[in-house]
């Protein structure tokens, strides 16, 4: 597999392109093909473009952005595939070192047979490191909501550095009865940097999982299983092996209100080879996440996320993130839409090369969008970002004001 080479710049893009091509070859009999384009031009003013804690290095500047994406879908009676390629150009007249073309690709698919079901989702992005280190409050991934929201980085941005990040998750389920099934799932993650150092460590991460799932009644479903994973750093000689168990319970309070509770525990054996000798560490990280979503169709939606997650990171091993997120979407009228979101987290190393200088991060945003026509809109937003490290004396913050105009094609007509 090409990703096993030590050439991070193109490896993630190669796999992402291959996945997209394979997934586009969904069964074509009686296929319906649809697409929804999105074009947007924006300008914004940022009081601390690089989120620097040093007053002399803070840059207050305006920026201009051209954003183009297309959601493409292929649907048949038994299968459905969705792909969304996107490109974003960042232009700063007074900070030309931050000019950058970023690229994204999101996709998902599913196939349903009489007793067998296969699904997958994938996310790839090629981003400026400073932008990637500052995750937003609102979830903007419309194809795979929630995917990639745990930023697998150290929080120390490097100007002029780009990263490639890939996640691919396939799942196969076989129905034992109409209400129960067994399955296997996999995950692959790749991170590569244009320039690597102890704070920007590329990695390969593999995980396999076996599970049993059951629907108890119209309100309740659950699953439990076992998993194993392997992490290999692309800078330095560090690796880890983990094994554990996880469970999940879902509950429908009403037809529009759903909660999901997941938990896992694992044993992680970490090893690193250094000039001074070998380092070995065994830890037992755990995770618990509660997610609640209220979705009243086109008028109101809110989501709340609270918990701890374990994930592969650029620290040279695994990291944990203790996080709280909330997002509220509401149509104030047929043309006017409001979005408010807040996010607070602390991430730190579980087992890795980087030091335990964890960061506290908080961001909040409000956005209003007005439809001039069914396809053309104007929007404005305000975002605040705060960051502080445990062992650093100074904190950093930034305020961002954005104004945009855009074109969005009509959604798929069922």
What features would you describe in this structure?
The model is unreliable at 1-22 and 24-28 (pLDDT under 50). The protein is globular and about 65 Å long. Strand 3 (79-91) and strand 4 (100-112) form a beta hairpin. The chain has an 18-stranded antiparallel barrel. It contains 2 helices and 19 strands. With 414 residues, the chain is mostly beta strands.
In summary, what is this structure?
The chain is mainly β. It contains two helices and 19 strands.
Topology (elements, then pairings):
Layout: H1 8-24, E1 32-46, E2 61-75, E3 79-91, E4 100-112, E5 116-128, H2 129-132, E6 162-177, E7 180-193, E8 203-215, E9 220-233, E10 237-252, E11 257-274, E12 277-283, E13 286-295, E14 300-313, E15 317-331, E16 336-351, E17 359-371, E18 376-389, E19 395-408
Antiparallel strand pairs: 1-2, 1-19, 2-3, 3-4, 4-5, 5-6, 6-7, 7-8, 8-9, 9-10, 10-11, 11-12, 11-13, 13-14, 14-15, 15-16, 16-17, 17-18, 18-19
Which value, in Å, is the CA radius of gyration? 22 Å
How would you state the average pLDDT, rounded?
88
Helices, by number, come to 2
Q: Give unreliable regions as ranges.
A: 1-22, 24-28
Give the key terms.
2 helices, 18-stranded antiparallel β-barrel, mainly beta, 414 residues, disordered N terminus, 19 strands
């Amino acid at each position: 597999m090409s990703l096993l080479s030590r050439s991070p710049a193109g490896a993630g893009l190669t796999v992402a392109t291959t996945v997209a091509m394979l997934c586009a070859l969904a069964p074509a009999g009686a296929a319906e093909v649809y697409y929804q384009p999105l074009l947007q031009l924006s300008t914004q003013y940022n009081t601390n473009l690089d989120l620097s804690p040093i007053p002399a290095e803070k840059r207050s500047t305006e920026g201009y952005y051209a954003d183009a994406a297309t959601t493409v879908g292929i649907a048949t009676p038994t299968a459905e595939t969705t792909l969304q390629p996107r490109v974003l150009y960042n232009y700063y007249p007074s900070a030309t070192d931050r000019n950058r073309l970023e690229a994204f690709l999101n996709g998902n698919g599913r196939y349903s047979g009489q007793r067998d079901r296969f699904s997958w989702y994938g996310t790839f992005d090629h981003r400026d490191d400073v932008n990637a280190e500052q995750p937003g409050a609102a979830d903007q991934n419309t194809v795979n909501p929630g995917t990639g929201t745990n930023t697998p980085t150290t929080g120390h941005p490097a100007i002029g550095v780009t990263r490639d990040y890939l996640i691919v998750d396939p799942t196969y389920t076989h129905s034992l009865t109409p209400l129960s099934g067994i399955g296997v799932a996999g995950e692959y993650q790749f991170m590569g940097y244009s320039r690597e150092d102890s704070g920007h460590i590329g990695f390969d991460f593999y995980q396999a999982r076996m599970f049993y799932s059951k629907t108890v009644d119209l309100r309740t479903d659950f699953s439990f299983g076992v998993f194993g994973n392997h992490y290999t750093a692309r800078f330095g000689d560090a690796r880890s092996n983990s094994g554990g168990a996880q469970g999940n319970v879902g509950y429908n309070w009403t037809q529009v209100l759903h909660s999901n509770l997941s938990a896992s525990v694992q044993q992680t054996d970490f090893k690193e080879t250094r000039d001074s000798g070998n380092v070995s560490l065994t830890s037992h990280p755990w995770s618990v996440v509660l997610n609640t979503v209220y979705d009243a169709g086109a008028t109101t939606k809110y989501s709340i996320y609270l918990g701890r997650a374990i994930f592969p990171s650029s620290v040279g091993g695994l990291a944990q993130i203790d996080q709280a997120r909330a997002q509220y979407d509401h149509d104030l009228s047929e043309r006017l839409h409001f979005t408010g979101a807040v996010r607070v987290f602390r991430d730190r190393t579980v087992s890795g090369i980087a030091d335990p200088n964890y960061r506290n991060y908080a961001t909040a945003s409000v956005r209003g969008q007005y439809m001039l026509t069914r396809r053309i809109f104007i929007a404005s937003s305000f975002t605040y970002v705060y960051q502080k490290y445990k062992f650093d004396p100074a904190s950093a913050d930034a305020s961002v004001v954005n104004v945009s105009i855009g074109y969005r094609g009509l959604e798929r007509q069922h």
